[in-house]
Write a structure and sequence with these properties.
By secondary structure, this protein is of the alpha+beta class. Helix 3 (85-97) crosses helix 5 (130-157) and helix 5 (130-157) runs parallel beside helix 17. The longest helix has 28 residues, at 130-157. The radius of gyration is 33 Å and the shape is globular. 32% of the residues are buried. Residues 765-776 have low confidence and may be disordered. The protein binds one DNA strand of 25 nucleotides through helix 3, helix 5, helix 13, strand 24 and strand 25.
Amino acid sequence: MAKNLLIVESPAKAKTIEKYLGKDFIVKSSIGHIVDLPEKGLGVDIKNDFKPDYQVSTDKKKVVAELKKLAKAAEMVWLATDEDREGEAIAWHLFNELGLTEKKTKRVVYHEITKSAIEAAIKNPRDINKDLVDAQQARRILDRLVGYELSPILWRKIKPSLSAGRVQSVAVRLIVEREREITSFGVTSFFKVVGYFAAGNISFKADLDKKFDTEKEASAFLAKLKGADFSVKSLEKKPSKRTPSAPFTTSTLQQEASRKLSFSVLQTMRVAQTLYERGDITYMRTDSVNLSQLAIDSAKDEVIKLYGDKYAQTRQYKTKSSSAQEAHEAIRPTNFSARETTSDDYNEKRLYELIWKRTVASQMADAEIEKTVITIKNNKADNNFVATGEVIKFDGFLKVYIESEDEGEEEEKEGLLPALKTDDKVNMSHIDAVQRYTQPPSRYTEASLVKKLEGLGIGRPSTYAPTISTVQKRGYVVKEGREGNERKYAVLTLKDDAITSVTKTEITGAEKSKLFPTDIGMVVNDFLLANFAEILDYNFTAHVEEEFDIVADGKLTWQKMLKQFYKPFHATVEKTSAAKERASGERILGKDAAGKTIMVRIGRYGPMVQIGDTADETAKPRFAKLRAEQRLDTITLEEAMDLFRLPRKAGLYEDKDMDVSIGRFGPYIRHDGKFYSLPKEDDPYTVNEARSIEIIEDKRKKEREKVIQIIKRDPEPEIQVLNGRYGPYITSDKEIYKIPKGKEPKELTLEECVAIIAADKASGKKKRKFFPKKKA
DNA sequence: CAGTGAGCGAGCTTCCGCTTGACTT
């Protein structure tokens, strides 16, 4: 039995450290937290000074039992959990649950997993920092109090199973407020003037230093330029430089993987986890931009080897985030000489490459750029045209990595400019005055929401992805795309002293994978904001974090801190609970012809329109569900009335009614208990009997054509060759197999099918990995 | 899959942060 037991949080980390420490050490992991408050009930005894009821988590019982056994046998137990609030608490929980004594326990910490860092840590043990543990208790219990006192209010006032919390409720608020900014944004248009010039044989364009509000003004300006001569008024060359971005943290990795690879934040974490477990990258949940000296040195070696001395420039970055706890290194390759991962998974390869490039670029020289600004005057009007160009004199880190920008931030590509000097004449080819529209702020993507939350100091690297899942699971937010609308814009052109005008169309407002608030999200948000503004305040977390820090410094007890927070908070909870009215987002749209009130609100089954009053005993009210794309706060009276035109009868077929309506998956015809989707080009309000019959017959025909052939086997399950949405495929025993190119599905033999299935199984296609929420 | 809509009230739901293992579509 080894003399020493060292405990870390992550199993993959344990494996690495065991290699560094040799045979005197056995290294195990706690797999995160081992105790927590119970899921059911508050788990905090408020009257008894907030005494928490910690319990070993059900899925950790085995781990704790094993560690306890090993600890008993060991001479010394080293608690090597992360050096942050949560890590310190885990060490303390381990101390308690494993029945350790101070004599037999040492607490060690390190910020990077390198041999020298681990050895240094072992030489400098310390005690568990109880003040830091107390700060964690304050954090944990405050989150429990907020979450478990607010959520039940929502169940009563709005809908069962809803939730609220310090982090998720602010995330929802951000999305709701952004949506309202967009809805209330007043779009205005203006005219931007661009001149197209040439000098020598280089063409270039330049923007006018003035924009016009109306077409009339723009046109008048162009008219003024008829017959004008253009020449260089001034020319400015400015050297500038660009500096590489810091290596990845969890948040920046999620942002770049979203922009460059279109990954969701969950997908990024999944793929990164796999790379981490393979040993290809360092830990992926980190808020630190720090690199170990070893990493910096080997990055430098790699840069010199690949690009030469000129390109190397080592740097240490500083974190900008005030909430950072920096228990780990930045996310980086473990081995810089590996440009690629040995994994053959496409996404793992791409994410690894991104991490490699970002890290290596962070240790490279600045790019040197020469910016040129040419101002062009004319002899007819006072306004000047300005052309800007950029020449990269030395590419530096740009050789390896260019950071992407969020939508709306990107600038227009700047082209090459001709070599000119003051007073040189330039030829004008034509000048456009293009109508442009002001842009509302853009909706959040998952990744840009993470960026925003991080900026507010809300949430941690381990919770960004789960938080985004939670707000979607609760139905507060949906991630989706929207088709844009056509919009017309005018283009005036001055060419050969004549002005022409054309109208063009563009698509505006199209969205892909953006976060939209739902009606429930808005109603919940408004309710919380009205009653618990303090919790929803963007600075609430920052404020309590300051207090946690004071607790961590030993200058305030966690109980006292909680008491100060809880008293007024709980009073508001009581007051809000006692109030009678429910929150339903009710909005009265008007009256119908018969004088009945028409209103929208959240009903038992979601957002709906109601005509008439439930208190009216002479006539029952009528109800209709809102469509997916409709919202309580924007739907018009007319749109609401339209909802009552369905379901309608399209006619009879085979002596059965054909009922047309719109469901969760779009318009459909219901006939003889079966559903038939309406094709896009058909309108549910007008589709007639003949067309409806055609749609039903179409689907029946497709179903008949679905089966290409069935090959019976015994005792093995039969093989079916079917026509699917993406073409023919083979299926057997609930698995799906692709048919190789060049094979005629109709003529596939049993032997060929068996061979295809065997080949597919042998290819070792990896099953998708994910972490569903565990059941209690 | 696609419906439903009052009020009564059984019993249920819920937080944030640390970590990964086990099952079907």
